[in-house]
Input
Amino acid sequence: MNREGAKNTKEEEKKCLGKVYLVGAGPGDPGLMTLKGKGLLECADVVIYDALISPAILAMINPEAEKIDAGKRRGRHSIMQEETTQLMIDKAQDNAIVVRLKGGDPFIFGRGGEEMEELVKAGIPVEVVPGVTSGIAAPAYAGIPLTHRLYSSSVTFVTGHEAAGKYRPAVNWNAIAHGSETIVIYMGIHNLPYIVEELTAAGLSSETPIALVRWGTRPDQEELIGQLGTIVDQVASTGFEAPAIVVIGAVVKMYATFHSL
Ligand SMILES: C[S@@+](CC[C@H](N)C(=O)[O-])C[C@H]1O[C@@H](n2cnc3c(N)ncnc32)[C@H](O)[C@@H]1O
Output
């Protein structure tokens, strides 16, 4: 085989050996990490992880692995995102088994879709390992079922942090208010006054129950329970902060049942 042939074969080998796994780490409780995700952390060559991953899950990583903190900072998302994607491509082309560890589920408000797209474009083999999303787990740990035969037969998951017009039209809160009986909002604390105003303007009663669950599933989980008409003042008076999941709808009444034990 001539030198050119040998070089091509080597480059093809490189492309075949590396792979990226987009793995969901769940919302915080290490017990919610999937067995498949844990197994991958234990044998990865490189782990690139996000800011909200709990230390107990980071402790599952193969001690020999290269660990890279890709924690995003508000306002610098696009730069960080490009760098992170390029890093995954470079490492996989260098034959590494790369785990891209993302909070919750990689495909729920986690940019997993965009990352998968870029990896596929670059010819990198990619596999997605779902995780337990915070929008389901945080309410569950607070005793709030998202559906219930008496209260709700439909759920909407929506982001509360959206730059209108940046990627697509802004969230239609009027449609969200009427679209389902339970509304679960990710990244909703910062814009809560606006969201509450939009939902009440759309016709939701100011007495509609609402729950905020901060650091859900972790030992420091905190909840704030109220009504649409009171919650903004409650947030201001208690200093309640992100990251939290917002749940709106009659299912929030179950919180009192769960905590009356
Ligand atoms: C960029 S999104 C990522 C969501 C993630 N992919 C998931 O499936 O849970 C980050 C937001 O998820 C929510 N979040 C993530 N972990 C949480 C937790 N342990 N408790 C409450 N909310 C959480 C918060 O609304 C936070 O602002």
In short: Residues 1-6 have pLDDT under 50 and may be disordered.
